[in-house]
Structures are given as structure tokens and as C-alpha cells.
Write a structure and sequence with these properties.
Number of helices: 6
Number of domains: 2
Radius of gyration: 16 Å
CATH architecture of the largest domain: Orthogonal Bundle
Shape: globular
Distance between the termini: 46 Å
Strand order of the largest sheet: 2-1-5-3-4
CATH topology of the largest domain: DNA polymerase, domain 1
Largest sheet: 5 strands, mixed
Number of strands: 5
CATH superfamily of the largest domain: [2Fe-2S]-binding domain
Length: about 160
Amino acid sequence: MIPGAVSLNVNRQTHVLEVPGDASLMAVLRNDLRLNSPKYGCGLGECGACTVLVDGVAARSCVIPVAGVAGREITTLEGLCEGDELHPVQQAFIDEQAAQCGYCLDGMIMMAAALLARNVDPSVEDVRRELSGNLCRCGTHLEIVSAVMAAARRMKADAAGAVR
């Protein structure tokens, strides 16, 4: 590996990058890896627009130094799908028409995916609590919660079918 380089595992691919270790993960994902899903919102980790998964846990990429996630598994919205098949949360957001302006969309999907990985049968209150830290400018909260619940039903049904 190049001295001073950082090795990142992003969306099941390893990248060795010469970037400052204190650069934000979001900046590296967007500028160096050309992944557009983590959005710059507040730059303080408050709005959720930059949410990615780090080892399966939702994390605000705008406040994480890239050196802090070297060697860990990072998943962006682009990496949620399996080939051409969308993740159930992505499909549910489309089916439920849960998008409007798009500011919060990627972060909401990543938060929902993290929740459903831990709890395939959440209550509406669980979903609201999980998504409460993600800001939505246009007020599609009802559609977003509906989409997450639809994804949960699909994932639960898929899991039940796999068990049989």
C-alpha cells in the first residue's frame, strides 16, 4: 500500500486512496469515489442527508474522518442493491411514492435499511423514532413511514418464505 494512503471497503469493493486521514468520509465518497448518494446538508452530523452504513450501522459521513473507517465495511445507497435488484427499502420508497425534493431521501433510506437489518418487524413508533434525527424539508414523513413499513412487511414475508 502507498505510504499515507487509506484503504476503504466501499460497496463491496476495496479502494486505496491518497487522501488526508482527516478528510470527511462524505467528501472522499463524493469527490474521490464519485458516489453521489451521501448528500452535504449541514456538515455537522445533524440533518442525516449524508448517512451511510459503517459495518451495518447508520453513521453520518460528514463528521467521520476517513482514517477512522479504514478497513471497515462502508455501504452507500448505491451499494444497497444486489446487482439490478433494489433493496426492499429502495423499492418501497418507489412503490409508496415517498420522494419529493430528494434532500433527505438517501439518508432516510439508509436509516431505514439499518433499522430493518436489526428489526424486521418494527412498529410505526419504532420507525418514527429511528428516522426522527433525519430532517425532511418538504414534509413527506407520512409517505416515508409508509414506505418503511411496506419494506418491513416485504422483508418479513421474504424471511418467512426462506425459512420454509
